[in-house]
Amino acid sequence: MSVKLGINPLTWTNDDLPSLGGDTPLATCLTEGKQAGFAGFELGHKFPRDPELLKPILQRHELELVSGWYSGYLLERSVEEEIEAVQSHLQLLKAMGCKVMVFCEVTGCVHGDQGKPVSERPPFPAERWEEYGARLTEFARYTLSQGVQLAYHHHMGTVIETEAEVDALMQHTGPELGLLLDTGHMTYAGGDPVEVAKRWARRINHVHCKDIRANILKEARNRNSSFLNAVLDGAFTVPGDGCVDYPAVFKVLKDNDYQGWLVVEAEQDPSVAHPLTYATLGHNNLHAFARNAGLL
């Protein structure tokens, strides 16, 4: 597939903090996302999980389903248990024509706990890299056999968030596992998304384009904030409205023939950051970055 521009419904309504945009109907998200110029949406908690219901909704808005988040527990579950647990989600993505599944290991995660700083997230158990890598590779091999490749999402407040942890994950897993590069999460974790892209470009199969307001991130770190409080304070924004070097990131993607979705995923308080305004700004900036890099 060629590069396409998508968006996550977090711009309108937040999965981790449902009070944000809780009253916003799904139809509003889809209508405004299409109006802003996007070709597809990732799943959110307001989307029906039955493809027979979801397909006509997206078709009416002339949108595609990009992918959807899956919470993995392979540090606790066997591969067989994870395969059983993923079935309904996998079948939905297959039926909707998705090529990737967003996967994040959430054992012990703290990103959904507003009262817990991200600094209190559990460290990855170093003695388990080889075992976990083999387990995750086997699980990824299974979903790939079903036509959907895992895209591992490094995420603040989880066991794999830093540049070094992403490197270790890639080193201990096979090519069956793809990497979701999230520019905002990597920047928040103190890493360099450009360098991560350079090292693992051939494994990147999905990209989340979240920008960072550097001054607010500095304050969030100084206050030892939770992930959700950083969201409420405005640490995240759409591409081109923060400090991430998107031209450099996209040059790496172009040089390595990236083909897939570029997805705006920028959690903000919709009562402060007007969703249509920011969705439009995000699309226009993302389109310009991608066009200038030769991705479009």
From TrEMBL:
Swiss-Prot/TrEMBL keywords: Lyase
Superkingdom of origin: Bacteria
Protein's name in the database: Myo-inosose-2 dehydratase
EC number: 4.2.1.44
Alphabetical list of NCBIfam families matching this protein: myo_inos_iolE
Alphabetized GO MF terms: myo-inosose-2 dehydratase activity
Record keyword Lyase present: yes
Transmembrane regions listed in the UniProt entry: none
Pfam families in the record: AP_endonuc_2
Keyword Lyase in annotation: yes
Xylose isomerase-like TIM barrel domain span: 34-270
Originating gene: iolE
Enzyme class: lyase
